[in-house]
Records
---
Amino acid sequence: MENIKNSRRNFLKTSAVASFGLALGISGFTKDASLKKISAAILKLEINPFIIIDTAGNITLVNPRPDMGQGSTQAVPSLLAEELEVSLNKVLIVQSDGNGKYGSQTSGGSSSVRELWLPIRKAGAAAREMLTTTAAKRWNVPVSECRAEDGKIVHTTGKSLTYGELADDASKLEIPKEPKLKEAKDFKIIGKYNQRLDVPERVTGKAIYGIDVDVPGMVYASILHSPAIHGKVVSIDDSETKKVKGVLQVIKTERTMPHRTSEAVAVVATNCWAALKGKKALKVKWDNAGYEKSLNNADYFAATTEAAGKPGINFEEKGDFSAKFAAAKEKLEANYETPFLAHAPIEPENAIAHVKDDGSVEIWAPVQGPDWTLRDVCGYLKVKPEQVKINVALLGGAFGRKAYHDFVLEACHISKQVKKPVKVIWSREDDISQGPYRPGMLSHMQGFVDKGKITGFHHHTIGESIARQVFKGLKEDEADSWIGGELSIENSKYQFDAASKVSWTNVKTDIPVVWWRSVYASNFGWGQECFIDELAHLAKKDPLKARLEILPDERFQKVLNTLAEKANWDEKLPEGSGKGIAVFKSFGSISACCITVTKKDQGVRIDKVVSVIDCGYYVNPDNVKAQTEGNIIMGLTAAIKDGITFTNGICDQTNFHQYNILRLNETPKMEVHIVDSGSVPGGVGEPGLPPIAPALGNAVFAATGKRIRKLPFDINNLG
Amino acid sequence: MAIYNLSVNEKKVKVDVEPDMPLLWVLRDFAGLKGTKFGCGMAMCGACTVHLNGQPARSCQTPVSSVGKSDKITTIEGIGDGKMHIIQKAWIEEQVPQCGYCQSGQIMSAVALLKSNPKPTDTDIDAAMSGNLCRCGTYDRIRKAIHRAAEEIKVSESGIGKR
Ligand code: FES
Ligand code: FES
């Protein structure tokens, strides 16, 4: 009880709510989420996430999706403000804390608007109806004469009452089960340009990221991990470390990943620099035996290539592909490779944990999901959810990395030993050399054409499974359904007249893997879209027309035709220049890209990138563009900058000098266009990425006749 | 440990730290100025960019002992004179930041650029800004925002950085 009271008090304080008025909660995020009323009394029933309108007219929303730069702190409240008829800056937002009452709270899978589109709007619409009804009653006029407008209910005569004046009475009404949602044509916020309200604090240095959080009594820890990630500590010589002013303690600790735990050594200090310096001075002997082979790129990719020669497990097959491929006259076969990649958010992984004597735990960390963090902390420390408080701090980039909580659990482990709040800060070297990474993958492609049309297609996906490592959930005879779903006919919409197949072979590795922006789509978009290009050339067809022929789906057609128009696909290019296209659907959105390149010395120069996205309904067109621009940069980086490689048990990259990412001087001209399909909302944060690398590969082929099949490649020297 | 008297954003700051401690950590952990960020610790990302006597400097590579008493340190917290700097306004107008983590460093580099070159070309921008990484990929908007700020300066003829 005490806890609830406290959390409520804190909540009210944070949101500057003066007194309690009308509160609505949504239970569950299903499409037909039922709305429940929360008064001050039944708030204790913990039905959430919720909207509060206090008697002063303040509106508060608990945002269940942490913002890592993708714009969820604007997108989610926009949905509410739209239905509630308030301007966006009237909504106060507080971040959820992982408590189960808020439902799913992890930013990932480009899901925020996709999943909250209806429930949050319904909550807003229900509140609007209740306020309108209350005003109508008070004035003794028909509801039809009242309308909601800018935080007030206005009567046709012009008189008005503020939401604050109505909230208390409104909260006594039954919640309408099926509130009437606004029609798209009446939207004032959704689909319109709006500046993000969190931008000013991000240009003044005032935004507090995880790494900036200070907690009283806190100490700092820097952690030395085994260069072979899973190695064991043989001996620790901390004599030099202890000489560093500010170093308090050197202790053995551990790094717990979802699938295994590694030994590590922590340097605890009074300030961050001392911890980092102390770590540099530390001499630890590791037993890394056995990892030379299992953490080794050459061996891993050799195994994937070997697997390409054998049948995999089928996700789906239409027609007898193998027989038809064997009989086909015009056919192709090729392997496409994508590397392991680090996420490398500019804010490295960091977390503060305070494991207290009474067994309770408090966490402050930039994490993508407080709910998952809570689950992991509870599982790790064997404590109950009610003993744990998660404070989500602003994320300085994440891209999937900060939904993997090894660094949070490290802070827990150390705090438990030193009995203080401990802030763990990973160095860039930790971030780049320790993983987890996007898995490196091989696409074994087979296809054939018939009378100038692509009629047979097989994508054999080969590599480590995220599901196997992170969820320990993959059986030997099972295909990672994550991949199959995306490449299936149902999702890709490609129609091959003769036969098609998607298959899978798991090649295991000790290199830790996890989702990375757009997950497997970033791997398999490469194989799929470059190979379609190869087959188009085999069929002597223009790559755009070849695609249009086998993509009858209306939305795909519109996206491709828009791209052709915006990128001036049919223009005649000078000798040495070429255009490449690619299209891929992921997370419910279709994105296509056209890249123009020109031969330059031994390589090519990127002249222009044009991206088109159909993400259905969207909240802020400018944010859709920003995310797609970001995907162009990250997609190009993945194509032409460094991959992560392991040689004999050790990661070859340590910092940005070996793991380069695209810089401003390498940024090509770019354009992003949105196709308004009015379909259900799709994702925005990730779908722009998968078509980038294949569009570039195809452009290189168009300009130079050279077919690139392995990423990354050197754009300045095609060999 | 040693005592250092620093001038940060035109205020005196006294710290008692190790001589080799980079200015970055002095600012963040001892001067309470968290706007300057840690990204790589080896001059590769620019997240830690501040101005030393008006020149952009990587604070992660600047030992506090190398900073003199009369050296003027300016951080993101100090560029606006209490108001929004023309560059910050342009950043808002172009909606540059995504996660925003790299933007303190980006802005510090951009402010220094415009101060020495109020009408930069794309090539000038390339040269001045390529030391600042942005993993969210906001480069195209950074370029636009710098041009916008340059326009504003031309219009207002106020001269950037005039104090
Ligand atoms: S932290 Fe100084 S340049 Fe990266
Ligand atoms: S805005 Fe996120 S790193 Fe630049």
---
Amino acid sequence: MTQIELRGIEKFFGAVQVIHNLNLAIADNEFIVLLGQSGCGKTTTLRAVAGLETIDKGDILIDGKPVQHLKAADRDIAMVFQSFSLYPHMTVFENVAFPLRATRMSSGEVDKSVREVARVLRITDLLDKRPSALSGGDMQRVAIGRALVRRPKAMLMDEPIGALDAKLREEMRAEIKRLHVKQGSTTIYVTHDQIEAMSLADRIVIMHEGFIQQVGTPDEVYSHPANLFVAQFVGSPVMNIAEARVADQAGAASVTVGEAPAGFEFPHQLLSKLNGHAANGGLTMGIRPEGVLVRHDAAPGYMPVEASIIEPLGSFDIVDLKVGSTMLRARTKAGYVSGPGERVHVRIDPEQAHFFDTASGKSLGVRL
Amino acid sequence: MAAVRTSSEVAFNRIAIAAVLVATLIFLAPIYWIASTAFKPKELAVSVPPTVLFQPEVTPFIRLFTKRVQMQKPVDPQVYEAAPWWEKRIYDGGERVLKVGKDVQLSQYPDRFMNSLIVAVISTVLAVGMGTFTAYGFSRFKIAGEADLLFFILSTRMLPPVVVAIPMFLMYRMVGLNDSHIGLIILYVAFNLSFSVWLMKGFMDEIPKEYEEAALVDGYTRMQAFFKIVLPEAATGIAATAVFCFITAWNEYAFALIMTNRRAQTAPPFIPSQIGSGLPDWTTIAAGTFLFLLPVAIFTFLLRNHLLRGVTFGAIRK
Ligand SMILES: Nc1ncnc2c1ncn2[C@@H]1O[C@H](COP(=O)(O)OP(=O)(O)OP(=O)(O)O)[C@@H](O)[C@H]1O
Ligand SMILES: [Mg+2]
């Protein structure tokens, strides 16, 4: 039973502010993922919660009690570090036992706890080895074991599998998920890999330059990005973004991007939903590649365009389509567009379109 | 990668190996000379041309460890027959071993050797210990004027230590530190500390701070983390630093000569003082020097792997 609450955290390194007014409430057993680019303050936030970094303003509450003045050792939190996993001079067993040796636990109990964790993590036959004899994946497994063994109030993980290769990462991702489901503990997990975030998180916290951009379930941040940053950060291939003009055209709305001669057809209610936002310009439309619909032959609502670059990605292709002065990337069946220069017809699925205020980048919350 | 070597690479390789061999020979020649002289009969030590092949004997070592006097008249054959083998070797040389009653009088060499050990070991432990703590502080905490302080620490190395020998001697005499173990130990710690701090700082910087932070999060105090994590991780650096400090203290001559004369005298000033009057006895001096070389050689040999990493510290990234 552990809740963590961050209230108005600010952190400076010298004159540089790396965390701005960060507020976050984490429920018991929740798996929270901090997602953001390199240098956005993820590690700093995690270290502040662990007690390895002081904060300049705000409160950190664990189960309602402020802990920002407590030493790391007194917070009963475990952490898996970004750049450290195991002590090279100790065996795997000693590494896992290390956190327990700080307590008054008898050596029999230590042995029992270590073996229990080893069993859960399937590292029993590694216990006598030195870290240098382990593979990268096993090393991270043991590092997670170190964190689990003490049954801490909360787990902090800073890119625990970021250094592994893609295949192993996938395996370990599943493993971490399995562990969380099984052991259940309040977890803050840091990564810059959105797939990791999507697959693990109960809720994702997207950070950028020390600001929280959005907090939400994986579905929320994907389907309802709060701003342009989140829209482009989450989802792969990246969402198309283009300045758009909206006009009333014979009972429908027409959305023009890239100064194209014609607009895409949208339901008329877009106009009322935008509530005049289109009039003063400053409107940006976002559409994921799967929302850009492509067909060979002409059809009502489809606009003729020319394909330029085609990226085959195995199960599907990403096709760059020239619309006016801008490019829209569409996701098509593999091989659907045969080559650059081919003329195809394109439409935007109104239901998948997002609209943002260009100046602030904020989502207008308009969905059709 | 398949190693395809061009002929110029092979030639270069041969030249490199030859250079290493020559260098090794140059370094080993004096050592060979000392070692061989230590086992030579007295008259061969200064023979011209130098003798390379000879029947080795241990008489120089017997002379090294005993007090002897010249014999005025030949020894009584009965006494000679009753003497142990090593005493006969002395009689053969025209000397007899000095005794009080039945007790053979040992020379001062064992005492001086012991003094060297005491001073070198204690000063090394202190210099490396203090250096390790200081380096840890510099490496892990924000210290105002850190760069300046490190520079000041190094500044003790910026003049030849002998420059201060005379004033130091006068001050030591005033406070009664001359001819004392403590006096020499303080001096050697002062010499070695700056070196030890700098070398250890390099090693400490190489230990990721996450090592300790992980321990802090796991419920250890910083002190516990230092002893359980930092010290074992720094073992290589500590060993390398210790070897260098030990060699410096062990071999120091000038201050030992000035500051000590009897009680606390170390081996370096003592050995040459045994040249004595008349014909110098090079074989005994060589024997003393040879034994004196051994501790450093053994110490260094035991720690040679650490040492190799130590002298190239900073160059190797894990
Ligand atoms: N000890 C420090 N002193 C000064 N600046 C720091 C320190 N630690 C981090 N920073 C700066 O604070 C910012 C946030 O760093 P942080 O390590 O939290 O980023 P991150 O999101 O974890 O990045 P990454 O994905 O690369 O690990 C960065 O600009 C970084 O340069
Ligand atoms: Mg980080």
